[in-house]
Amino acid sequence: MRSEHRRTIVDTRTKSNEISAENFNIKAAREVLRSIELGDETRERVLQLQEEKCRVMDWLRDQRTKINRGEKIELYEENSDCFAVEYRDDAFFAHDGEQEFTLTLGEMLTDASWGINYDLDTDSVPIDIAKEYILSRARKTLRELLNKQLVLIELDVNKDEGQQKSFQSVHKRQTEGKELIARDKGFVAEEMTLNLMKKLIIDHGLPIDIEEADVYDDVVNKIDYVITRKGYDRGIEVDANDDSSVDQVGIQFTLMFRKASMLGKRDVVSKALKKGITGELRDVKDLALVNVHPAYIKRAVNKWKKSRGPGGPDSHLEKAAKVDLVQKMLQGLFSEKEIDEIVSNIFDVDRRSIKIRKTYLSGRVS
Predict the structure, then answer these.
(1) Same-domain pairing of 172 and 279
(2) Phi-psi bin for 80: left (phi > 0), alpha (psi -120 to 50), beta?
(3) Do 173 and 298 have their domain in common?
(4) Which of 86, 250, 291, 304 could connect to 223 by a Cys-Cys bridge, CB 3.0–4.6 Å?
(5) Residue 223 within any structural domain of the chain
(6) What is the distance of C-alpha 161 from the center of its chain?
(7) pTM for the whole thing?
(8) What angle in degrees, to the nearest 10, is found between the helix axes of 161-176 and 127-157?
(9) 104 within some domain
(10) 192 and 223 belong to one structural domain
(11) Residue 181 CB partners (closer than 8 Å, separation 6+)
(12) Are residues 353 and 254 in the same domain?
């Protein structure tokens, strides 16, 4: 069942910078769906979402053509509120008609999470950057459509009562259509953390890959992201029993920070690990529970809401929160010495000199 409905819908976690149109073949999707015991209404709704993916692909192709011609890019979603972006003196600048903001590439590629749109000046913005921007927008839309498909299918076929309740909650959020920043603070914090890590990768060369898990992996496998170590020399000698010898870990993120709640959360994640990771993340063998103090999130969100400028709320996280998240996310993938070096290189600080709000029991789960 899992592999069948996974073949039906594109997996937007692909490592390459291309998205294959073959993954969106409606005829092939229809044939696969016939092999799954779905209700007629569910099957038709899943196919309608597949057709929407095809329209996203058409948009992506059209925008690439416009970029090659030096023409104005049109966003897939209708939205008149955009920051105008130009590139000069080896830097990006965003304008809202009144103010000018410096903009990083990482911010440009992640700010869609917060409803921030950019109108790129194709005369000054490099072609490869413009193409990377529209690809990031396409991936975000495709992932949202993928998650809608997965929820519809799981609501029809999943017999686990607890998982059914979780998928019903997700379906309710999807149909409400609230902007992310207006949702529960846990979802906001999860996206802030994901975007922070992406920006550190893009703008500062953080030596990892991070993949956002889909709704199935979140509900069933208790995984929010998968982090893979890359391009960082371990040195000649590595202790085989050292926790830093793993190269990939699944992350379950939470704002829980007190002992009782964290022990309960750890037990849930531990049970998922012992049961075995299923689906496309079945090769993930290590899970970690990562938390951050909610006070950091609240302060950053409140600061950003006053301007809603480029960078999103995670750009307003204080340095202590960023260091805390980075060291927790990298734990097990890198040695303590390597994490010291990474934090020092990115934040120009000794992480042990920063006072960080304490949370209980974050780390590897067994």
Answers:
(1) no
(2) alpha
(3) no
(4) 250
(5) yes
(6) 27
(7) 0.89
(8) 130
(9) no
(10) yes
(11) 114, 115, 188, 301, 305, 313
(12) yes
**Tokens at 4, concatenated:** 């069948």
Phi and psi at residue 232, to the nearest 5°:
-135, 115
Domain count for the chain? 2
Place of tokens 């906001």: 188
* Residue 239, domain member (yes or no): yes
Identify whether 103 is part of a domain. Answer: no
If asked whether residues 212 and 140 sit together in one domain, one would say no
- pLDDT tens digits along 6-39: 444 544 444 444 555 555 666 666 666 666 778 8
N-term to C-term CA, the chain: 28
Structure tokens at 341: 């070096």
176-207 per-position pLDDT tens digit: 988 898 889 999 999 999 999 999 999 999 99
DSSP output for 257-283: -SHHHHHHHHHHHHHHHHH---GGGTT
- Residue-number span of the structural domain to which 260 is assigned: 185-365
Q: How far is the C-alpha of 357 from the C-alpha of 343, rounded, in Å?
A: 17
The three-class DSSP label of residue 78 is coil
pLDDT tens per residue across span 312-328? 999 999 999 999 999 99
Measured distance CA(254)–CA(224) in Å, rounded: 10
